[in-house]
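Priority: medium. Attachment 1 of 2:
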């Protein structure tokens, strides 16, 4: 177990096993020293978490949706680990994109994204400071409340 995984455990979280692709795509892919994840839903043990993981987000559901964003982040990190072998190879988190299934008039997607951004800072320190987009959308797969994508810069051994 690496240092970053110890940070995750010490913060009270568990890095899950990476989920298998649910279609004709890869959960994560490497291009040069960058690893890109596919969109990750707030799934635990194959089901959307409750509360916060299903349906449209509104002002009353911000806190639950922020927790769901953290679950999606952990799933994204698990996908990254399938490429890197260890999260310690992450040199810098580059970009987090969060799509939030939003009720009409909901404009606080950025507050939902804070649920994932705060964990990146907690786990990675300065390496976790990233660019971010938080986008409101009408619908997401499986009636999920949100979907998260991650781009990270990694150090890979030279051959």
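Attachment 2 of 2:
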């Amino acid at each position: 177990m690496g240092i970053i995984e110890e940070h995750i455990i010490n913060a009270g979280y568990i890095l899950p096993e990476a989920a298998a692709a649910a279609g004709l795509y890869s959960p994560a892919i490497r291009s040069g020293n960058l690893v890109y994840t596919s969109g990750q839903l707030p799934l635990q043990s194959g089901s959307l978490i409750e509360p916060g993981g299903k349906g449209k987000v509104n002002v009353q559901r911000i806190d639950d949706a922020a927790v769901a964003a953290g679950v999606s982040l952990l799933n994204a990190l698990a996908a990254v680990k399938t490429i890197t072998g260890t999260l310690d190879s992450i040199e810098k988190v580059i970009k987090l994109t969060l799509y939030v299934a939003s009720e009409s008039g909901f404009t606080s997607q950025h507050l939902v994204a804070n649920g994932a951004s705060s964990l990146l800072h907690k786990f990675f320190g300065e390496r976790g400071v990233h660019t971010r987009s938080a986008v409101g959308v009408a619908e997401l797969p499986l009636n999920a409340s949100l979907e998260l994508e991650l781009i990270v810069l990694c150090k890979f051994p030279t051959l």
